[in-house]
Amino acid sequence: MGFILLLLFYLLVFVDRFVGKRIEPGYDITDSDGSVKYRVGMGVYLVLLLIGFFTIQENNMVSLKNSMDTLKWYLIFMLILFWGFQSYMEWKYVEGKKYRVSLLVMIIGVVATIGVFFVDEKITHTTFGEELEELLDNKEISKIEILRTNFGEDGESTHKQVTINDQHMINKFSIQPSEMELKKSKSAFPGIDYMMTIYTNDGVHYLNFSEMDIQIQAEKYFILDENELLKLIESEDLEWESESF
Prior knowledge:
By secondary structure, the chain is α+β, with helices and mostly antiparallel strands. The chain contains 7 helices and 9 strands. It has helices at 2-23, 35-60, 64-93, 98-124, 128-136, 167-175, 228-235; strands spanning 125-127, 141-151, 157-164, 181-184, 194-200, 203-209, 213-216, 219-223, 241-243. It has a 9-stranded antiparallel β-sheet. The chain is elongated, with a radius of gyration of 26 Å. The model has no long low-confidence stretch (mean pLDDT 87).
């Protein structure tokens, strides 16, 4: 999605420059009496752009879902600010109707940005329950094994494993995290913090996950909000046994 948003911005700039050149009176805002004010305004814009970027990065460490929502409205705000300011300066300092092109580009940019996020959500967003249901294909779970790996400061790893045979607990693991929201992404990196093996009457299925990423068979996902699977593991009094490899 990042590439599509970047391409969209370049297309908007191209349309603004290409169409604008045809109706400008032989000069643009940087050649007008308002050039100094325009450059100062763009400097302030760049500062706000950087502040917003680092804020979103920090928010991403808390919740990817909140980060995506913040990113959408941040981009919309910056589009309105950029072309809104440019349109005002052109209206005030440049003869002709170039400012109308900037306003039109701003509207197109806002609508297109909303559309990109909407399509991305429809294509990539899912839930743990939906993916687990597709994986198991209505087969009953007979056993669950979870291998937990902890890494010490010295780089050494310790392993503990738990085997779940109790049907009530198995149902908890298949139902309680079912509403956990996921986003398909090849760049997700679930690691090996937790490895879950699910046994059914006709096969074995594998999941591995960390706090913010999960892999279900070959598919990788970002966990958009709280990791309900990890929360369940930590809340239950499971009988962990040390493993050596």
